[in-house]
Request: fold
Amino acid sequence: MYWYQNNNLHKISSRARSFFAGSALLFWSCGSPSATKSHKKSSDIFSVDSFFNGEVNRLQQLNPAVLKSVSKDGEKEQRELKIGSWKNELSAFQAADISKNFDPTLYEVKAVDCVTEFTAKKKDLQIQKLRIEFDKNEKVKHIHIVKKITNSLYDSQEKLDYFSDSLYRIVKLQDVQGLDANQYEIVGKFIPPKK
Reply:
């Protein structure tokens, strides 16, 4: 079995970076009533791209060991390894950026306590859901993304989860016209350094 690397993820990744940076600003008032606002300027939206740029730099410096498993259509392989390029590894997450030219008419925005969620109002938008959960110190604890692409050639659904310093997961189901549907899952668990 091969170790999956999707080139399409690199194309989308630049958009995701900007989104997470703006979203960080949205959560500044975690738990306050003023945190629930439906209309935000693009500069106020959490930038996914900026957040993961920071994570890429941090993880490149830390160079943590990862227990990585790849499953494709029921076949699974698992290895402990060091990631050579965190930019490539997290590119699918960076690609989920909705902060550039953010249009509040396209997303419903809910901010309750330490969770902010963007839900697409139209089914044809690629990023259908973006959910960011913060801890009590206003640091990102969990990011959940649902992506969907539908065109005349294929349908693709992707769910991405990133838990800071714990694990990241990508689950993708792709149905190409005239071929069997296939599913893959990538899970990377951060291995704590030995003392």
Residues 31 and 113 are 4 Å apart (CA to CA). The helical segments are 7-26, 48-62, 86-89, 91-94.
